[in-house]
Amino acid sequence: MFRSHTCGELRITHAGEAVTLAGWVQTVRKFGAITFVDLRDRYGITQLLFGEDLNSQLEIQPLGREFVLQIKGKVSERSNKNKNIPTGEIEIKVETFSILNKSAVPPFTIQDDTDGGDDLRMKYRYLDLRRNAVKRNLELRYAVSRSARNYLHENGFYDIETPFLIKSTPEGARDFVVPSRMNAGEFYALPQSPQTFKQLLMVSGYDRYYQIVKCFRDEDLRADRQPEFTQIDCEMSFVEQDDIINMFEGLIKRIFKDVKGIDYTDSVERMTWEDAMWNYGNDKPDIRFDMKITNLKFPLHVFRKEDILSNSPVAAPAFQVFDNAETVVAIAVPGCSEYSRKQTDELTEWVKRPQIGMKGLAFIKCNVDGSFKSSMDKFYDAAKLKAIAETCNAKPGDLILLLAGNEERTRKAMSELRLEMAKRLGLRKNDDFKLLWVLDFPLFEYDEENNRWVARHHPFTSPKPSDIDVMIANDPVIHDASKYLEHPYANIKANAYDIVLNGNEIGGGSIRIYQKELQEKMFAALGMSKEESQHKFGFLLGAFEYGAPPHGGIAFGFDRLCAILGGSESIRDFIAFPKNNSGRDVMLDAPSSIDDKQLEELSIKLDMKK
Amino acid sequence: MFRSHTCGELRITHAGEAVTLAGWVQTVRKFGAITFVDLRDRYGITQLLFGEDLNSQLEIQPLGREFVLQIKGKVSERSNKNKNIPTGEIEIKVETFSILNKSAVPPFTIQDDTDGGDDLRMKYRYLDLRRNAVKRNLELRYAVSRSARNYLHENGFYDIETPFLIKSTPEGARDFVVPSRMNAGEFYALPQSPQTFKQLLMVSGYDRYYQIVKCFRDEDLRADRQPEFTQIDCEMSFVEQDDIINMFEGLIKRIFKDVKGIDYTDSVERMTWEDAMWNYGNDKPDIRFDMKITNLKFPLHVFRKEDILSNSPVAAPAFQVFDNAETVVAIAVPGCSEYSRKQTDELTEWVKRPQIGMKGLAFIKCNVDGSFKSSMDKFYDAAKLKAIAETCNAKPGDLILLLAGNEERTRKAMSELRLEMAKRLGLRKNDDFKLLWVLDFPLFEYDEENNRWVARHHPFTSPKPSDIDVMIANDPVIHDASKYLEHPYANIKANAYDIVLNGNEIGGGSIRIYQKELQEKMFAALGMSKEESQHKFGFLLGAFEYGAPPHGGIAFGFDRLCAILGGSESIRDFIAFPKNNSGRDVMLDAPSSIDDKQLEELSIKLDMKK
User: Fold this and answer.
1) I need a labelling partner for B90 at 20 to 30 A (CA). Which of A137, A366, A413, B55 fits?
2) Are residues B260 and B337 in the same domain?
3) What are B166-198's pLDDT values in tens digits?
4) How many CB pairs lie under 8 A apart between chains A and B?
5) Percentages helix, strand, coil for chain A, rounded to the nearest 5?
6) Three-state DSSP state, A113
7) Is residue A293 domain-shared with residue A250, that is, in the same domain?
8) Do B457 and B528 share a domain, yes or no?
9) What average pLDDT does range A598-608 have in this prediction?
């Protein structure tokens, strides 16, 4: 061993001891004849004191930032104590030293506030990983996985590895594929998730399975998506929805406790998908704050069969924009009635950005004196404005923001605006954690382009028990596209659940189909022929012939969960070696070209366009 | 929940309780008006008693093997107790039952001694996984990983995930590659091991890293090799060989304790590679038994510069086969002097099989009366036979077996023969575990075909500290191929270590190179140009410029370790979803062809021969 102690270990109680330390030179400070060096390793920083006697040696072998140094010396009490670090009461009087390795000057500073830009830090990731900020993230990541493993172990789950070289069955997302040399012309696929394998393990009787496992999706990368990502993947047999919810609520609460020291004793709210969409415009609402959406005008929609218009204050024709709009929604932003013209103009610009895509923003200032001031003063009188404010439950001092337009876009825009206003008001605190279960999703979504159903979750999700007969009894074909909402499948609810943390979906799952006929019906409903479903999923349909138990599970997005627990919006800082938005590892310079010999052995050749 | 208890949980103390169980029907036994059913789940088997009152229902809904059944009933004491199972004192008097899922008749019996052949069981792996024998293997596998994680956690290791989509740098084994859609014409590779990443993590100061991780090698599969396999991968900073040995000897001992209940308190023997080759003909000797090889005639070889011939009893010309042979080696097999002609003939046939490749086998029976009987009686007199027996340390009653021929093949054949004889004598017991460290491997192997050096371990292994100067100072080019043994590189020893369990290498590692110049010299020694080493490993050479610490590590073959601990020779039974010897998953039918659209998106096309 190159050391007797780590750089985070020594205390005043060690004073007088002879020790050997090894680590990196954080700083070198010369004061006249003596030199102070901060020596750093994973465990901490220890101050070294090089006396006058070492000066000549230091001249021959000068120390620089990030040099790897080994020293022998005696622990002694510091005169000038540093209360901010655990080793701050001592320093080491260096007797001998040896430079184990030199370092060139790093391309950016190894400090919390580094001067390195994103690209530079990605290229020299091995140096970026030295920074405390990044190190803390990876430590948190390990703590989360450790906590999850302990909880799952204590609850009888087995960690069982599933294969990485599997079969390509593209459904939705694209597979990454791997040409097989030994089976020329054939390809493996990398798993998008171990979904079918964990279901097979239930069929095999393993009862409780988990895995913290890499998954792969070849999608066009949006910001903060990675082609390879990690899931905490779980499955249980002989369970119903409530069993899963209780078990995995427990998992997240345990992680809060182990990793953040938070006793999350509140029961976790459960909300239907309908209510989430209705009140928050979003299936993963942030419920750390209220500011619910008021639906002033809404078309008859699959998820709420309610006639909003007849008793809405915006019902009678008055303001053409609202009159012509499919949807009018509002939020009452607390305490913002005194926004200036400049501020409301800026908000209007904000909703008109292409990412939000609204044509404009209407507002009503609910002044503290009880009066109203609105961008719609020309169209609505005070009584009408008051009626709207009352419908919105606005209090004096609130600013009501209204959006109108096409249903889907408007709802989405209002959801974004709600989050933005909460952010501006400081209502989205990183250290405030609020969980939510969203339940009762639709089983199918309508695919306009192909006039057919697609699975909202995945093709293995079971309908609610009460909807199974509806699914079996009806023909999935949509004969009249304009009336797809009237098709019985439009109302089938999934036995599925998402868990949401601070407005982010951190996990989702479902009770699975375990009956062969129902699974076949599902494949048919998604437009798969018998041949196709047999080719792709014959093994699963086969397994369902031999006594498949009722089962269900969940998968957590591990990278995202860690990022939120670490108070960050970006998952990249919680991955040791992430890829950039083009799917490149700029440190490795991968992907890259390969040898012709490799291509030939794999029986493939390049087929470049142009 | 579909159950109140599992099928392994109920005891006599539960008598009288109303319970709900769910599981699989193991057996149905009808005795007159009553029916006994054994209900099975992961946790055990519970006997169910269906009384006369349920007969009419059982007629309408008959139970079959592997049906999924839910029952409600009362726990009661059995009259006919089964002491062999933990639930054997009770049975459940069934009140109501419900068939949750039916099962077709399985293609083989779900029993320890199944009637299913290998191919059938691979195709229906989800049924094979139900068998106790396989289930116990996967439980053992999980116990090993759990034990390893606990030990490594307690010793300050972090589990840090490294990427799966990396850069192709084929060295030795072939990479599996993954075409990149977003970077047309370029490929990722799947990692053969996280070697360079764990070294970068050491450069980044993470100090102690581990991962239980999938690795990939596209090699022609020998029996019991898998294209994807799992490693326990570890790395430490500021360590020397002894630190690694102590830490990971501790890991294996902990696994013995946790998984097998074995207190392995013996200190683990350490043996040089030279001694292993000399005494066992093998770099991973099984030392559960002695039967060392006696070297009667041996050429001057790089690994032992000793003149065997001059004082060997086979030195003087007498027996042409020995006189002409490069190598003559012998073992004394205890207690086999009374082997019949038939038995020695059979052994001769055994060594003549193509896998062994010897031309014949000589023997000397050391009779208990002190006389000798040999297949070489025509050539050697009694005194000579006695001299050979004495050199071999043979005792009366032993059978000396001798092989002669080309050095490498003969040594290897004798190693195989030694293991075979031990197996026949019952000296290789599954429940007897003996660890061994093999040390001081040569750093380089000679590649005859290209007249150059190849890395025996991998290009990141450091030479012994005392050999670093030899490596730096000398030109790696071999000017005279016939004298390669005289090249200074032939004698350089690696700072590497293998850990051997019962004759199987279960892990191996090395102290790494951490000096940029030495790493460059290594790449040059392996025939890599500066451009090539920069293209392939520029990131590592770059990292070594910024303060790389001394470091080293080890990787364990997790599948193999589990198999040996489970007393099996085959890793396949310790993998949930293994591939066959052609790299196929016959259950999934993967690899398989993919759509033209997928190929087009990936900018590749097939290039089939003929």
Assistant:
1) B55
2) no
3) 999 876 789 999 999 999 999 999 999 999 999
4) 362
5) 30, 25, 40
6) coil
7) no
8) yes
9) 94
